[in-house]
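Teaching assistant here, posting this on the class forum so everyone can see the example we discussed in section. The complex has two components, and the goal was to see what a joint structure prediction looks like when all of them are supplied at once.
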Amino acid sequence: MKKVCARLIAILLVTVMLAALSACSEGGGTSSADSSTSSSKAASEQADPSSGESASEAESTAPTGSGDTINFWYMGDSANQLQPIIDTYEAQTGNKIEVQAVPWNALTEKLLTAIASRSGPDCMQTAVSRTAELVASDAILDITSEIESTAEFSRDLYFEVAYDSLKMGDSYYGVPWISDIYPLAYRTDLFADAGYTAFPETWDELYEACVKIHENTGNSTFNVIEGPYNYNFLMSFPFQAGCDVVTEDGVAQFDTPEMKAAMEYIMKYIDSGISSDINDGVDGAVKLSNGDAAVTGGSTWLVSTIKDLPDAEGKWDMALWPEGPGGRDSVYAGSNLVITTWTDKKDACLEWIEHLVTKENILKHYETSSSLPPRIDAWDTVIAESEIGNMQVFMDQLNYARPFPKVAEMQEIGIEFTKYAERIMVGKEDIDTVLGEMQQRAEEILARSR
Amino acid sequence: MKAHKKYVPYLFIAPAILILAFCALIPIFIAAGISFTDLSLLNLGKWDQLNFIGGANYQELFRNADFQKAFGNTLYYVGIGVPLVILFSLVLALLLNTGTSPVYAVYRAAFYMPSLTNMVAISLVWLFLFNPSIGLFNQLLGLLGLDPVKWLVDPAVVKNSLLILSFWKNTGANMLIFLAALQGIPKEYYEAASIDGAGWFKKLLHITLPSMRFSFFFVVTTTLIGWFQYFDEVFVMTKGGPMNSSISLALYIYQSGFQSNRLGYSAAASMILFLVIFIFTLVQLRLQRSGD
């Protein structure tokens, strides 16, 4: 009886331990990997028959043919847009791509888990704004020499800003894949009524035009209130005022005259009453279509949204940001392809990345997902295929773009900046006071790791 | 065999204790440990760069205006939301308990429905209701000749707008618990009271409410904890804005941990929230026991 009892206890304890461990790990780190396999397995199983048969056939042509499985993180709600490109890669090389779609708003959480466990993806798509952070946390590989030795990665093929966004010091930490750029969108008819056949070229001209439009319509003109809620839009103002926001060696620039000029320019619209200071959450495309805005921040997303709004038809266009005292630079965002430091499949990853950035595949991805290509030679097709030809503006803005300040704490500083900007724009607090506090806050954040 | 007898009860509770230890207690201790470090995305996984910084996170928390605001807002949400929800769910339960016709079942379902609905779906509808220019609420106010209210835009109003939404969403679940308790009270008590000539109010005071004491305790405790951890509504409706005027402690913890990557700091904030909830629950338990 004693023995039975002891055995019972032992079995019970082991079962409980196992149950507890699996329950715990479900809530913890490995859940990301678990959830990934369910969706991607289905995808890879679908692709399996074709890749299985072609693997042997492709063996002679395949560069490696090692049958590696690459774990790739793709940003977005689903990886369907990538499937055709994966299929051709798997057929060509016999390698397998296990793709996991990571929603943009879950990126930080996912990165935290991956970096904490030093596992997860072998390579991934990641936002350009995260480069400095990922380099500082020793999560992504320096691939400068590979970039120099691979034709498809050649820096001449890409917009300068695209490679600049992943350069830290003299090293390059990835390959550009998607260029996000945010020019402006405006109502051509309202500007025409105010006597403008073309979009204003400078900050002052734009303001004057908006004053005239407001006299005509009485509505809000430049949708500046987007600022505190749209980081990319907000950052354009200090850039154009000639402010670096944070310098590359980590000096905050919030108390500079340039930053003040940027905030004053925004507030000129609000204080004079020609732009609304109410953030009602209505999308910029809808505001443009309703006439509740004459100018708003533009994106490829706006272009695809506004097409469904019949009121806007024929009355809108894209425009380059006007020139401020420091130029007309807007924020360069978008995504790069990076290889993690913990992978043991670096060569296979490079091969996969090379496949992703060929002109053909980058255009294929543009067609399925509207992600703008960073390769200059792909833009002829992009512009030719755009419905009203206004993709040219996106390309032009790419020549007036700069990446986020490359300091590891930029994410936190950026979030703080939107909050302080909200205090100025919505709370109507004194610009000098708020910027002074923001400077202090940024210095505090930057001092932590130095 | 006899010697084993005293272990047997422990054996039976072992599964629960172990799961609790691995999934709740140990993580709490780990979080408490992390709160004394400068853990962030940058030194995660590089333990040689992790520094023990003593109470610096806590000191910063108490100096930080955003944290103070989040703390104050949370007390506001709890202070108004909890009594309001409990009172109304109790009143609703009492009213629904007065009859048995199918109409009551319809109302019961209707009141409970919001609790079942996904918060994100709810937020889509309520964002429209609250819209300052095209929203239904302001249209109705306009019909009454009143000025429009900037529901989610005005820092002075936004907390109350969220309270209205949460009140609507959370009343139903508690109502159901109260209703179950009400229906469990033996009819004989009321019959005896009627014979003694007790009126409606006397019955409520001396039979209904005392019989519901346990469910009352349960509802108050879970509601308190739920409201201290107030997150979903703020997260999907306002993200804590405008100007942090609606931010709650739970959202602040999320933002500092998962957006600003400051894990040590946000662990410190969550320890404070944990302590506050712990103290309130302890007081609750004491009150319940002294009542027995």
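For the discussion questions: Chain A touches chain B at residues 1-2, 5, 9, 12-13, 16-17, 19-21, 23-24, 27, 108-109, 111-112, 115-118, 133, 136-138, 228-229, 278-282, 408, 411-412, 415, 419, 422-423, 426-427, 448-449 (CB under 8 Å). The first strand of chain A starts at residue 69 and ends at 75. Think about how each of these relates to the inputs above.
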